[in-house]
């Protein structure tokens, strides 16, 4: 309650400031209506005596794999149900106001989700009707900056939202930030005790959490280093939900650009991310990049997943890009190979793949102002799944305000665990027009055909999609709203 | 001069041809009764070649500074062209000096310069290739360069020291606006790199610019002309102002702007030269808030409404990605609008390295909402291509992008999978995993390899059935598991599977 009073007081102070010519407010909104086809899975059964073969997994007369229990009358299987269409609607509204004093501004961004027709299932989190993404008051001066309210910590450790305060002190090319407040679940933007976790998790956290963090940054024209520390602890201080540190650096030396990143889980004592990339332009529009990466997934400590000791993989990547001097042509070639550490479990007689590779190409051709053709092809073979896909698209820019285009794509997916091997072919068109400087309309629609190529169960992704998005804005735009 | 005229008369009288031609004698053409007027510059030198043995016969005082002394007395022409001996001719020497052009030349200084044959005037005035005496013409620039070698291969080529022979344009008062407009353009000005590197580095080079340019020439493109030292040395000229008024400015993109790292340090590396083309409004196309204001304040305010190179962010396609067209220029009288694409194609997918290190200061151009808009699970098709859902599982396995940066896998993935029926529910789900009985033997390896994908369908209860002490008690911890460390950090996590503190065993 105390901090709410504090926030209210600051808001009243800001809103009550004497009006000046420099005061202004920018309100932007967006409404996105989609129509989505989907064939959910349904559970069905056949009589045991109508199946062939023997054992726990058999085949029905039509070849469908079914799961049978010895002695039971019925075998069960999962298949795609009839088509369902739903129309999720998302509304975004954001407000930015400034001119309340030197460097004082406030920002808010909310999102409303409403299913227009049909069920909630076709779009994630449709049962969460309202999200407040940002709501903070900011005072930004040359030497320091302070924020209070719902805000984000963004950096090498990811994006974390929290309700609290942050302060940044700047000195030359260096700055130091400290932050703290009530932690929100990463990627969810809700308190740890939210019912949304309880709906999908057997053991949701029973304590809300506090977040503490600090970030130091030093930057020159050639070098940049950022160190980040973030701790999320249960509100009763009984334990940690996360304790992470990151170090990101970049430098340019001898014609090379070197980028590096480290992210560590301090609570578990493991390195989640180690990444280094060296990039060099070799002339004639060609740039080469070599990257090495080691990745181990991070899990917060309110789940049990981290105790299952996931292993890391190492990957080496090579990329080359070329752009013609007039920027009309550009292309990128990328490749990579990765290998996982030994999982240290399971039987050698039942191996699983522990390596992978990828190869990709994409190219762009802009024959004239306004026209562009983009095509791409990529193959990724690895643990759990393999995929190859290609696409070809053309976009036409019509004057200053409108674009129109069409993209066709083909994709093949192969899953090591047989979750829906198949081919998909389809395309979609899109158009965008600025009806007025502050009113823009996007329309797109497409259809895809999914042809499963084996008899393993899985969703039929054959679908039609259409969407209409209207974006609008009110008020001046000195950049405070983007 | 009288001696010269008398000598001419004598010569005419002695010359059998010249003396006979003008006379009205039998067998000869009659002498025209009309009077012919000859313009000062049209004097037929070649026809008089045999009359005058030297140039000084007529131009006796050419080395004097006065214009009148360079030409003969018109009365001397009447000695022959009196209507009796020859057609009457009226010729008047120039009374006033020629309009002051660009030429800086002194007859006085050149009067003693003789060629290889010893002829002084013919050194400059002989018609090229002429062999006859008094076949003369106006001197040409090439003739000047013949002696005034400036190490340049041609008249307009660099490094010509123009000031040797020319005066600055502002001093050439005799040139009209059209003549100024018609001044030749040196080939160097057509070079692709000329605009980016044409600032004169030495006073001598600046003097060269002044041969054809005035301050208004610079002001055509340079927004900061008032602060340019070179421009201040050129002086003002109304004729140039009239010429450039109808000539649109030109702002080619410097090569430095095309370098891949230009964006990283274009602020901290900014110099006064930015103001050549950019006003403050250029920066405002991208920069927001207090970031970059120190540099932006160094730029000029728009000059008389002119904004120089005005930048604009590109249109985006339906996926929110910038169209690949790199630069679109639309030229106005004093403004060129360029669509700039600050980040290369594909940047959004791999922006982590640049953003996290601070190499590119995101806050310089974006408010926090720009980031949270995506990282909170975007409400528009910005990041993933259309129909990404059909291949999202493979992308998840490949771990090319960190899903958890924007999506909470516990809720985002599992709620959707549950809704479409992809939910682990007892033994029926076994057919998902190869439909093979040995999956039970493989699942441990699969989990350690790609545990995050397991969690998109399975909740903890699925695993606790076997792996909790209240279940079968199968130990799931691998070799890297540090029980003490994790226990200190989060004993509540241990308690989900263990009834007692496992560290006390």
Continuous helix count of chain B: 22
SSE topology string of chain A: HEEEEEEEEEEEEHEEEEEEEEEEEEEEE
Largest sheet of chain B: 3 strands, mixed
Q: State the secondary-structure class of chain A.
A: mainly beta
Question: Can you list the strand order of the major beta sheet of chain B?
Answer: 3-5-4
Number of helices of chain A: 2
Terminal Cα separation of chain B, in Å?
A: 134 Å
The helix content of chain A, as a percent range, equals: under 10%
Mean pLDDT of chain B: 74
Shape of chain B: rod-shaped
Content of β-strand of chain B: under 5%
Q: How many individual β-strands of chain B?
A: 5
Overall residue-averaged pLDDT value of chain A: 85
The global form of chain A is globular
**What is the chain-wise order of helices and strands of chain B?**
HHEEHHHHHHHHHHHEEEHHHHHHHHH
Query: What ranges of chain B have pLDDT less than 50 throughout 5 or more consecutive residues?
Result: 1-25, 317-333
Task: Walk me through this protein's architecture.
The complex is a heterodimer of chains A (482) and B (505). By secondary structure, chain A is mainly β. Chain A contains two helices and 27 strands. Chain A has helices spanning 2-15, 195-200; strands spanning 24-38, 41-47, 57-59, 65-67, 74-80, 84-86, 88-98, 104-115, 130-140, 144-155, 158-171, 174-183, 209-219, 223-234, 240-253, 256-265, 270-283, 286-295, 313-323, 329-340, 355-365, 371-381, 385-398, 402-415, 422-436, 439-452, 463-474. Chain A has a 22-stranded antiparallel β-barrel. A two-stranded antiparallel ribbon of chain A has the order 2-5. In chain A, strands 3-4 form a two-stranded antiparallel ribbon. Chain A is globular, with a radius of gyration of 26 Å. The two termini of chain A are 31 Å apart. Residues 13-21 of chain A have low confidence and may be disordered. At the A-B interface, strand 1, strand 2, strand 4, strand 5 and strand 7 of A face helix 14, helix 15, helix 16, helix 17 and helix 18 of B.
């Amino acid at each position: 309650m105390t901090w709410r009073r504090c926030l209210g007081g600051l808001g009243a102070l800001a809103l009550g400031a004497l009006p000046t010519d420099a005061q202004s407010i920018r309100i932007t909104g967006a409404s996105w209506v989609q129509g989505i086809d989907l064939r959910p899975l349904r559970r069905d059964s056949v009589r045991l005596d109508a199946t062939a073969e023997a054992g726990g997994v058999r085949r029905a007369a039509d070849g469908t794999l079914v799961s049978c229990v010895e002695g039971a009358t019925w075998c069960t299987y999962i298949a795609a149900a009839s088509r369902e269409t739903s129309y999720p609607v998302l509304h975004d509204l954001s407000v930015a106001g400034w001119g309340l004093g030197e460097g004082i501004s406030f920002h808010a961004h909310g999102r409303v989700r409403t299913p227009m027709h049909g069920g909630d299932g076709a779009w994630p989190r449709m049962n969460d009707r309202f999200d407040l993404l940002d709501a903070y008051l900011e005072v930004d001066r040359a030497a320091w900056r302070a924020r209070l309210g719902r805000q984000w910590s963004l950096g090498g450790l990811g994006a974390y939202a929290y309700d609290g305060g942050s302060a940044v002190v700047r000195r030359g090319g260096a700055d130091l930030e400290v932050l703290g407040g009530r932690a929100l679940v990463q990627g969810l933007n809700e308190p740890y005790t939210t019912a949304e976790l309880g709906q999908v998790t057997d053991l949701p956290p029973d304590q809300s959490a506090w977040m503490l963090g600090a970030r130091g940054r030093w930057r020159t024209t050639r070098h940049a280093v950022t160190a980040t520390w973030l701790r999320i602890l249960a509100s009763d201080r009984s334990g940690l939900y996360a304790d992470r540190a990151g170090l990101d650096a970049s430098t340019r030396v001898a014609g090379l650009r070197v980028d590096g990143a480290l992210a560590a889980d301090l609570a578990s004592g493991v390195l989640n991310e180690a990444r280094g990339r060296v990039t060099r332009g070799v002339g004639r529009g060609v740039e080469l990049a070599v990257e090495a990466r080691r990745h181990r997934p991070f899990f917060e400590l309110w789940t049990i997943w981290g105790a299952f000791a996931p292993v890391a993989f190492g990957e080496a990547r090579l990329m080359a890009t070329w752009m013609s001097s007039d920027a009309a042509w550009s292309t990128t070639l990328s490749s990579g190979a990765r290998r996982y550490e030994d999982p240290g479990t399971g039987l050698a007689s039942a191996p699983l793949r522990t390596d992978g590779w990828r190869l990709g190409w994409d190219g762009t051709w802009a024959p004239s102002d306004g026209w562009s053709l983009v095509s791409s092809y990529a193959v990724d073979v690895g643990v759990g799944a393999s995929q190859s896909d290609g696409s070809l698209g053309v976009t036409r820019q019509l004057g200053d305000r409108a674009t129109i285009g069409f993209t066709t794509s083909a994709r093949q997916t192969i899953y090591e665990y047989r979750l829906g091997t198949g081919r998909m072919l389809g395309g979609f068109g899109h158009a965008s027009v600025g009806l007025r400087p502050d009113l823009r309309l996007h329309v797109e629609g497409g259809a895809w055909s999914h042809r499963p190529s084996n008899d393993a169960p899985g969703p039929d992704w054959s679908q039609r999609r259409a969407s209409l998005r209207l974006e609008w804005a009110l008020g001046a735009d000195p950049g405070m709203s983007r | 001069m009288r001696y010269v005229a008398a000598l001419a008369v004598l010569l005419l009288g002695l010359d059998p041809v010249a003396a006979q031609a003008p006379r009205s004698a039998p067998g000869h053409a009659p002498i025209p009764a009309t009077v012919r007027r000859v313009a000062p510059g049209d004097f037929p030198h070649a026809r008089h070649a045999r009359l005058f043995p030297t140039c000084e016969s007529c131009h006796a005082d050419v080395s004097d500074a006065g214009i009148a002394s360079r030409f003969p007395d018109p009365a001397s022409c009447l000695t022959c062209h009196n209507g009796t001996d020859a057609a009457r001719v009226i010729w008047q020497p120039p009374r006033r000096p020629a309009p002051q052009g660009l030429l800086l030349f002194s007859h006085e200084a050149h009067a003693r310069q003789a060629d290889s044959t010893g002829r002084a005037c013919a050194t400059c005035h002989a018609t090229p290739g002429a062999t006859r005496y008094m076949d003369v013409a106006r001197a040409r620039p090439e003739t000047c360069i013949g002696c005034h070698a400036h190490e340049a291969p041609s008249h307009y080529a660099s490094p010509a020291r123009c000031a040797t022979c020319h005066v600055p344009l502002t001093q050439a008062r005799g040139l009209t606006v059209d003549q100024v407009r018609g001044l030749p353009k040196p080939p160097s000005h057509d070079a692709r790199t000329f605009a980016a590197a044409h600032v004169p580095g030495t006073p001598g080079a600046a003097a060269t610019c002044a041969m054809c340019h005035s301050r208004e020439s610079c002001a055509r493109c340079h927004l900061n002309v008032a602060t340019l030292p070179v421009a201040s040395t050129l002086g003002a000229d109304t004729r140039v102002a009239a010429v450039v008024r109808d000539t649109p400015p030109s702002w080619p993109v410097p090569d430095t702007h095309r370098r891949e790292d230009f964006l990283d340090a274009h602020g901290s590396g900014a110099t006064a030269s930015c103001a050549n083309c950019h006003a403050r409004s250029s920066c405002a196309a991208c920069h927001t808030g207090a970031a970059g204001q120190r540099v932006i304040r160094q730029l000029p305010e728009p000059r008389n409404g002119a904004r120089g190179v005005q930048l604009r962010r590109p249109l985006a396609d339906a996926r929110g990605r910038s169209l690949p067209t790199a630069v679109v220029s639309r030229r106005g009288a004093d403004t060129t609008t360029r669509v700039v694409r600050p980040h290369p194609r594909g940047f959004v997918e791999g922006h982590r390295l640049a953003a996290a290190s601070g190499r590119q200061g995101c806050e310089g151009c974006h408010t926090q909402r720009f980031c949270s808009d995506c990282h909170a699970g975007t409400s528009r098709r910005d990041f993933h291509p259309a129909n990404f859902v059909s291949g999202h599982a493979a992308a998840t396995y490949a771990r090319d992008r960190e899903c958890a940066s924007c999506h909470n896998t516990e809720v985002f993935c599992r709620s959707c999978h549950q809704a479409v029926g992809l939910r682990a529910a007892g033994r029926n789900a076994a057919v998902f995993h190869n439909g093979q009985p040995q999956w039970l033997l493989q699942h441990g390896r699969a989990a350690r390899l790609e545990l995050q994908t397991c969690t998109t369908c399975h909740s903890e209860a699925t695993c606790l059935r076997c792996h909790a002490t209240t279940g079968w008690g199968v130990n799931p911890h691998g070799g890297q598991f540090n029980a003490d460390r994790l226990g200190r950090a989060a004993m509540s996590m241990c308690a989900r599977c263990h009834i007692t503190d496992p560290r006390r065993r």
